[in-house]
Task: structure prediction
Amino acid sequence: MIEITLNNKNISVDVEPDMPLLYVLRDELKLKGTKFGCGVGQCGACTVHLNGQAIRSCITPISAVNKQKITTIEGLSTDGDHKVQKAWREHKVPQCGYCQSGQMMSAASLLANNASPSDEEVVEHMQGNICRCGTYKRIKKAIHAAADMES
Amino acid sequence: MSVNILILAAGASNRFKGCKQLATIQGKTMLEHTITRLSSLNKKIYVALGANKDSIMPHLNTSITTIACANWQLGMGHTIAQACEKINLEKSAILIALADQVLIPTSHYLALLQAQITYPNKIIVTTAGDKVMAPAIFPTQYVEQLKGLTGDKGAQKIIKNNLAQCHFVPCQKAQYDIDTQEDYQYLSNKIKNEMEPV
Ligand code: FES
Ligand code: FES
Result:
């Protein structure tokens, strides 16, 4: 049995210890907000938080996060009102949307550690999240806007 | 402080008698195994190459940035120094990992990252028994010292000179690396049961 605190709830799951966290979230727990992109740690679509840090869940075995705190897009805020989510709406960031839950999770972990990141810091932090639709410009704008919001 | 990742894979693996970085375990090269584990962290990954550079490159996917270290023959110290010159570390820390510590699980790399967040100004060092070793995370204020490394001496020297500034994270599995064909055979067998398939 593996126990994790998922979106502030303690849960336990009975799965193989090497099952990727992403599969546990999507297939076992039916939390579909976190996306499967490449499955090999190259695109960032599967980004979630481990104790507040952005990690890629597709290549993280569930056993590696045993007894720890995982947050998915579903748990980022109660009403979709995290400042990143608000800024994303305001700046109409998504195009097809597929990469965006990962983008927002990465952005939220950046702002949690760095309240007003420079352009360069945004680019560096977000480099692991690929967007096929090329929404990068709006992502950058929205992150700066979120940084400027009263939280 | 953000973190960049540097995997050292520049050595000639003389004692291995062959290209160590490309020796496969369960169908994947050692370097690929290390990259996969570290990719969990969602940070930028650099791989320092020297010997066998041209044969290793085609095995790396496009999300990896390679650094060609012309001075690799002079030893690991030179490789680290050269690689650190090429990465922008003005404001970021650097996690230095080796390509041949194949038993280290993803959870250890995640634990190092966690420790770095908790102790941003400390050097985060792996220990096995009473030995300090890679992987380790150096905050930006140690980058100058990394750039000053020479010869065969790796970053161990900096760790030993700054023990009071280190935070230690144990990982028994870090002590196994692959130097010789015997190590390779031994670990390939051991791994069948121990390594987390990814
Ligand atoms: S799905 Fe995890 S990085 Fe692409
Ligand atoms: S919005 Fe389509 S992949 Fe990013």
